User: Which sequence fits this backbone?
């Protein structure tokens, strides 16, 4: 197979790559999902297991994915095919690129619906709806959004349109430009929100909740959740990391970058917890309220606290910014594939993928209203997508990355791609990637398939 890399773009520096990659990783996963999963999983124990997974499994898989992308110099399916060819392996390995492109598209379709909720909540804070919310009415306010498919579809459309707009402009003028403005804004917003929450809320209780592990709360399910969350938060196994790897200049150290991205992603998740839990405790709200934590529970605190409307506005703006720097990384694999493989113009490819994601995303929109009772194995369309991507495609992608880099590629090629680190450090990464990651991920699959009951 010929390499399709002649006009493949590259990030202009290590710094812009780090910004884009951290932007891809930091998203709804950190600010919406992590706090509610930590809340449901009992706090500190979940956090500790999560941290272990991020650094022992997540970062090595990220290193593998970046290495495949950079060495393959193309969109995921072609990058993997290029490498398989070079390494004398079957071209069937390109399935790894395909599950990525498809998975990233599926995640984009529902991610943008949830990002649409955050747009709706920005609007709600501006027009003053959230200022009047009480514990009794908050559920209805959120419920009325969920029951209106027209409203959800409109915000979903707007969010996809913003993503298309950035992606259509390309890697350097689109993605890079966007993250250079949005990521500093995200950090400033986050710091303001954490500072405010720590001063105005129950800081001590929040800290204890997040950092004092109570191991009795640790069930096998919580462990699996933590691994799934680590994969989701680091965007692993879906080609989103691989595609940014393909835009990575040769001089940049992949292991160091992956460590920085993993650390930054974790810090943001923990900071999001520190922006949310002090308020949850201060107003005696339910930490374990699940996916509605930030849309249903948190606004009750915003309505009561001084300056709550401004806090709410900044909070949902932060979420939207975080979501958009992630959604661009989900759209990019398919767009670059269409562009490089089928010679579709970037603008057309972005619009086409955007329309497809919008239409497919309507399934998620309808899951909360007109299709709420349409269920497959007891799951709505949205639950099915969430399950298929989070529990199947992402761990499968991770497993294939680990097997490809750890076993299919020649040792010398992997070492060459990761030449910036010492032999000792490399040996550790290689061991984690080739042995520990596959075992852990296979265990997840066995568990998901219900073949193994941990009790
Ligand atoms: N990591 C992103 C988040 O935390 C989600 C994501 C998943 C992005 C998969 C790209 C691919 O929100």
Assistant:
């Amino acid at each position: 197979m010929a390499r399709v890399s002649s006009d493949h773009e590259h990030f202009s520096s290590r710094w812009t790559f780090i910004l884009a990659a951290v932007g891809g990783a930091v998203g709804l996963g950190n600010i919406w999902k992590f706090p509610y999963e930590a809340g449901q999983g009992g706090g500190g124990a979940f956090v500790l297991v999560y941290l272990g997974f991020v650094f022992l499994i997540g970062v090595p898989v990220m290193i593998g994915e970046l290495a495949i992308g950079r060495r393959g110099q193309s969109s995921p399916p072609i990058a993997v095919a290029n490498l398989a060819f070079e390494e004398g392996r079957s071209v069937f390995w390109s399935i790894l690129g395909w599950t990525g492109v498809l998975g990233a598209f599926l995640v984009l379709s529902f991610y943008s619906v949830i990002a649409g909720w955050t747009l709706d909540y920005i609007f709600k804070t501006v027009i003053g709806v959230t200022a009047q919310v009480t514990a009794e009415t908050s559920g209805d306010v959120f419920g009325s959004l969920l029951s209106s498919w027209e409203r959800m579809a409109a915000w979903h459309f707007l969010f996809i349109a913003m993503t298309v707009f950035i992606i259509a402009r390309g890697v350097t003028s689109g993605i890079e430009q966007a993250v250079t403005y949005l990521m500093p804004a995200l950090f400033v917003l986050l710091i303001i929100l954490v500072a405010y929450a720590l001063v105005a809320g129950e800081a001590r209780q929040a800290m204890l909740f997040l950092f004092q592990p109570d191991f009795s709360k640790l069930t096998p399910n919580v462990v699996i959740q933590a691994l799934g969350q680590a994969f989701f938060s680091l965007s692993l196994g879906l080609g989103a990391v691989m595609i940014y790897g393909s835009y990575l200049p040769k001089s940049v150290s992949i292991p160091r970058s992956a460590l920085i991205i993993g650390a930054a992603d974790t810090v943001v998740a923990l900071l999001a917890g520190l922006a949310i839990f002090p308020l949850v405790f201060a107003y005696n709200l339910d930490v374990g309220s699940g996916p509605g934590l930030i849309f249903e529970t948190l606004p009750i605190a915003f309505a009561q606290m001084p300056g709550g409307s401004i806090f709410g506005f900044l909070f949902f703006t932060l979420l939207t910014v975080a979501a958009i720097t992630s959604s661009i990384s989900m759209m990019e694999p398919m767009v670059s594939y269409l562009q490089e493989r089928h010679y579709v113009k970037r603008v057309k490819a972005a619009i086409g993928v955007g329309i497809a994601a919008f239409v497919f995303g309507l399934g998620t929109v309808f899951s909360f209203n007109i299709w709420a009772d349409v269920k497959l194995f007891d799951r709505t369309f949205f639950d099915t997508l969430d399950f298929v991507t989070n529990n199947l495609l992402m761990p499968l992608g991770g497993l294939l990355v680990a097997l490809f880099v750890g076993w299919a590629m020649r040792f010398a090629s992997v070492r060459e791609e990761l030449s910036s680190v010492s032999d000792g450090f490399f040996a550790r990464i290689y061991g984690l990637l080739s042995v520990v990651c596959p075992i852990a991920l296979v265990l997840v699959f066995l568990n998901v398939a219900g073949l193994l009951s941990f009790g």
The CA atoms of residues 81 and 171 lie 22 Å apart. Residues 308-342 form the longest helix (35 residues).
